[in-house]
TrEMBL record:
Cleaved signal peptide residues: none
GO cellular component, one term: membrane
Transmembrane regions: 30-55, 75-96, 108-125, 131-149, 161-183
Entry annotated with the keyword Phosphoprotein: no
Family matches, as InterPro entries: Yip1_dom
Full protein name: Yip1 domain-containing protein
Subcellular location: Membrane
Species assigned in the record: candidate division WOR-1 bacterium RIFOXYB2_FULL_48_7
Keyword tags: Membrane, Transmembrane, Transmembrane helix
Entry keyword Transmembrane helix: yes
Length: 193
């Protein structure tokens, strides 16, 4: 676990060195040792928030969804977060061809994996609902990491970089809306009814 913490710290504080150090490894290894544990942070934080609300504000149990619905929603949110990593990696892999970059799926997965670290770590803010708007800073830093990694790993030309970032940003939001809309809408409907 300490290796994971050191890697996250390196990505957040010195991303250029972190991305150049990672050259070996497999997608399966990165997924099991990096993506799966970090994607749990927002899920655990939201569950703890729910439990704190029940414990410290007992009157809110009339307004909160049932525990089984929250658990189901948390598991689905975790699965969707992992799906988004693979879909974004596929998007970068395909987009790189249009911007004269050499990229395989493994490189794209590494770039997405590293760029989502601020969002996963920022997911801990869900523990305190009044701090959730600070996740916008994590989103901005995530896009900054994409900028760094694209220039370092893929070698996208400076004149194509802005277009690539805008296209990636559009793909990011569309993929998130589609995945969360398709899978999360039935969960929300179940919680409300």
């Amino acid at each position: 676990m300490s290796a994971l913490v050191l890697k996250v710290k390196a990505i957040l504080l010195n991303p250029k060195e972190a991305i150049t150090l990672e050259t070996t490894g497999s997608i399966q290894n990165w997924f099991l040792n990096f993506v799966a544990p970090l994607a749990l942070i927002p899920t655990i934080a939201s569950l703890l928030n729910y439990l704190f609300m029940l414990l410290f504000f007992p009157a809110t149990h009339y307004y909160l969804p049932k525990l089984e619905d929250v658990l189901y929603g948390s598991v689905m949110n975790y699965i969707m977060g992992i799906m988004i990593v693979f879909l974004l990696a596929g998007a970068i892999w395909q987009l790189a061809q249009y911007y004269s970059a050499v990229c395989d799926f493994k490189q794209a997965f590494l770039i997405v994996m590293y760029s989502l670290v601020p969002l996963w770590v920022g997911g801990a803010l869900q523990l305190f609902p009044f701090l959730v708007p600070l996740q916008l800073i994590a989103l901005a830093y995530s896009f900054y990491l994409i900028y760094i990694f694209e220039t370092e790993k893929l070698g996208i030309a400076k004149e194509n970089l802005l277009a690539f970032l805008l296209t990636y940003g559009l793909a990011y939001f569309v993929i998130n809306l589609l995945v969360r809309g398709i899978f999360f809408n039935p969960i929300l409907t179940r919680m409300i009814v």
